[in-house]
Specification:
Structural class: mainly alpha
Number of helices: 12
Order of helices and strands: HHHHHHHHHHHH
Length: about 300
């Protein structure tokens, strides 16, 4: 067996795009109508429609042997289908490459996420050439479909997480503060929901990855949390800057900016709770911002019912 061709050039980490495809084998159906519909969608350019008459049923063995006769008829129909002929040709023409890929997937193990992404890209470059991936791979005995799916899932998870890291590193926080604050609030909520959902299945996913030779680097989630704190700190810093510029403003403008401080503080606390802590800069800014909200002659915005008291 030859050596697989070298993987394609890797995409820079910050630009990796997740790619998820269904690779499960087609499910067989015992329902006749479903089988007919499936065939009709698979026959390229074919609008073949037929109806089994009583004579045709008799030809295929009548009601007693109808299933066997129909199966034989469908097999013959399949052989004549341009689509399924192409499947057979793909299986034949790409047999050597697919067998090499099969061996490569079976032996693949890594704890290097860059290597994981490169291997996944290498797989896709091969499988993209197939007319129907599921149909062709099903013709190769014991092809490691589950491991292929796991490699894709792990690569997609890391690529998506890496994209979040890239977004946070390049997050712009500039005046007026309300705009980046609103934008980051929405993005933080979305990412938090996704990570919280993953945390509920993390142990199971980790075991699945390891059972297929992938030692996933979960430290990327720590990096995401640290960057969330950085962006939150930038929002607090800008809110404080704009608050300092309102000394000569009227009461309405001061009140609006104080409300902005309060919103920035609440978001900072949500990020703090999600990340499990603050760095020195975030802690300092949070204390300063809280002090600005609580001081002054005007009353600070009252927290909603059941809002926790913040002890920093």
């Amino acid at each position: 067996m030859g050596v697989p061709p070298p993987p394609p050039p890797s995409v820079p980490a910050g630009r990796l795009l997740s790619r998820q495809q269904s690779v499960g084998k087609l499910k067989k159906s015992s329902i006749m109508s479903s089988l007919f519909r499936e065939l009709k969608t698979k026959l390229e350019g074919s609008r073949l429609q037929f109806k089994l008459s009583s004579r045709t049923k008799k030809q295929f063995g009548g009601s007693a042997g109808g299933k066997e006769g129909l199966a034989a008829f469908l097999r013959e129909l399949t052989k004549r289908s341009p689509f399924f002929q192409q499947i057979e040709e793909d299986a034949k023409n790409h047999a050597k490459t697919i067998l090499e890929l099969k061996a490569a997937i079976n032996s693949f193990q890594t704890k290097d996420m860059t290597e994981l992404i490169k291997f996944q890209q290498h797989m896709e470059a091969i499988l993209e050439a197939l007319t129907d991936e599921n149909q062709v791979l099903a013709k190769f005995e014991d092809f490691p479909i589950k491991k292929l799916e796991t490699i894709r899932a792990a690569a997609a998870l890391y690529s998506k997480s890496n994209l979040v890291v890239s977004n946070l590193k390049n997050w712009e926080v500039k005046s007026p503060a309300a705009q980046p604050l609103n934008k980051f609030d929405c993005y933080f909520t979305k990412v938090k929901e996704e990570l919280d959902a993953f945390e509920r299945t993390k142990d199971e996913e980790s075991r699945n990855f390891k059972s297929h030779g992938i030692d996933f680097d979960f430290n990327i989630f720590v990096t995401i949390k640290e960057l969330m704190v950085d962006v939150s700190s930038n929002c607090m810093e800008l809110a404080l800057k704009e608050w300092g510029e309102t000394k000569g403003a009227n009461d309405a403008e001061k009140k609006a900016n104080k409300n902005l401080l309060w919103r920035a503080f609440k978001l900072a606390f949500r990020v703090y709770s999600f990340a499990g802590g603050n760095d020195e800069r975030a802690d300092k800014l949070a204390k300063e911002l809280a002090n600005e909200v609580l001081c002054g002659s005007s009353s600070p915005p009252k927290p909603q019912t059941n809002t926790p008291i913040f002890h920093l």
